[in-house]
Amino acid sequence: xxxxxxRVFLVDxxxxxxxxxxxxxxxxxxxxxxxxxxxxxxxLEKIQVTACDVVLMDVRMPRLDGVEATRRLQSxxxxxxxxxxxxxxxxxxxxxxxxxxxxxxxSGFLLKNTPPADLLNxxxxxxxxxxxxxxxTTRRLLEHFAGALPDADIERxxxxxxxxxxxxxxxxxxxxxxxxEIAKLFTLSEATVKTHIGRILAKTGLRDRVALVVLGYxxxxxxxxx
Length: 226
Prior knowledge:
The chain is of the alpha/beta class. The protein has helices at 15-26, 40-47, 66-73, 96-104, 116-127, 135-144, 164-174, 179-186, 190-204, 209-218, and strands at 6-11, 31-37, 54-58, 85-90, 108-111. The chain has a 5-stranded parallel sheet with strand order 2-1-3-4-5, with helices on both faces. Helix 4 links the parallel strand 4 (85-90) and strand 5. Helix 2 (40-47) packs parallel to helix 3 (66-73) and helix 7 crosses helix 9. The chain is globular. Mean pLDDT is 83; it is low at 150-154.
């Protein structure tokens, strides 16, 4: 298989859904389905022996759901340096399962009725390191489930390594601002903002903006609006 081809693994308890996704993904020149599973447990077993880049994970499944499967996937021994990125699929926009999956390490979520073109674009986005859902959408999800977040400030050790400017940028990312908006706010170039975000990701060990939004709320840098 060409190195540029995105390797996609499908996890859904409905065989018909998996068949539909397979036809859609395999119709693209730059991606291929390399495996599939009917529940989270089967997925974990197969992914350990199947090289893949992106996992489309149904969030509600019998035996082992997508949330727990996503969490365990982050700690599986990998041949590469990082586990595959996970896009969770959900029926509801404000879904507590989607919220839990993002906290467990998913790069984002998509509704199951997402148009095919948007799903394919999301696979490409997450493979390139971008968030599948916008930070503002993640923020709305977090605020909806604010009761599940810690009440007290939590100072993670890796935040102590951030400069004052990096902390300021992190706060604005967590509030859902785009690079353009952050650049305007601090009178910086977008390239400088991107550099700051890259350093924040490196210092925190996180992989994308969605994870930074979660971090901002969990550490108390950003408080849910009342």
